């Protein structure tokens, strides 16, 4: 799948391995990538029952108590990672009747690359891995809520404005994202 750039300020930069142009940098203001083809049917979307989201992130700022920062959102209700959130930061969030989280026990700091992985299985719940180590679980399971059709898959924001200019709830990420991978199965820790 390919996405579309919005906001105009995202740029290719060096990634966690030192590869030139291996990551995208987002300014935390108005730029993000959206893919409107990824979630083609909300009622049958695989992310409601089984999925894995894997990516490398690098935040340019520490966690802020008064602002939301989301580097990736897969249909919003079906999984997103919150770097900053006034309620709960550095946690994966998902919705199955009410909001649930799997919060990392390690405090993630600014200006450092992290490999984060969120795994959901409707029979087991949510597992959050940090740099290859299982750090958090939430055993609340079941089929997740339908993804929001207006948000689809976003990288660099939670709720992009889809080019409308209305960014009031976009939760733009201020940092770098690299090597995003999404699977339609719950990967094991070894995988």
Q: What does this molecule look like?
A:
It is a single chain. The protein is mainly beta and 191 residues long. The chain is built from no helices and 14 strands. A hairpin with a 3-residue loop joins strand 8 and strand 9. Residues 160-168 have low confidence and may be disordered.
Radius of gyration equals: 15 Å
Any idea what the shape is? globular
Beta strand count: 14
**Beta-strand residue fraction:** 35-45%
Mean pLDDT figure: 86
Poorly predicted ranges (pLDDT <50, ≥5 residues)? 160-168
Helical segment count? 0
> First CA to last CA: what distance?
22 Å
Please sum up the structure shown.
This protein is mainly β.
List keywords for this structure.
191 residues, mainly beta, 7-stranded antiparallel beta sheet, 14 strands, 0% helix, 39% strand, globular
Strand and helix layout:
Elements: E1 4-6, E2 11-13, E3 23-27, E4 32-35, E5 50-59, E6 72-74, E7 80-82, E8 91-95, E9 99-103, E10 113-121, E11 125-130, E12 133-138, E13 153-155, E14 174-183
Antiparallel strand pairs: 1-4, 2-3, 3-14, 4-13, 5-10, 5-14, 6-7, 6-13, 7-8, 8-9, 10-11, 11-12
């Amino acid at each position: 799948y390919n996405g579309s750039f919005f906001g105009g300020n995202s740029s290719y930069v060096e990634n966690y391995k030192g590869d030139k142009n291996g990551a995208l940098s987002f300014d935390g203001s108005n730029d993000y990538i959206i893919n409107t083809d990824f979630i083609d049917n909300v009622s049958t979307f695989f992310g409601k029952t089984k999925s894995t989201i894997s990516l490398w992130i690098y935040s340019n700022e520490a966690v802020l108590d008064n602002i939301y920062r989301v580097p990736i959102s897969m249909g919003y209700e079906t999984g997103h990672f919150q770097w900053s959130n006034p309620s709960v930061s550095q946690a994966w969030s998902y919705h199955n009747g009410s909001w649930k989280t799997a919060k990392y026990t390690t405090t993630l700091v600014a200006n450092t690359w992290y490999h984060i992985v969120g795994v959901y299985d409707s029979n087991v719940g949510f597992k959050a891995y940090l740099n290859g180590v299982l750090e958090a679980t939430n055993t609340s399971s079941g089929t997740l809520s339908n993804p929001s059709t207006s948000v689809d898959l976003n990288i660099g924001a939670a709720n992009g404005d889809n080019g409308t200019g209305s960014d009031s709830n976009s939760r733009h990420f201020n940092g770098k994202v690299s090597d995003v991978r999404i699977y339609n199965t719950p990967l094991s820790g070894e995988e």
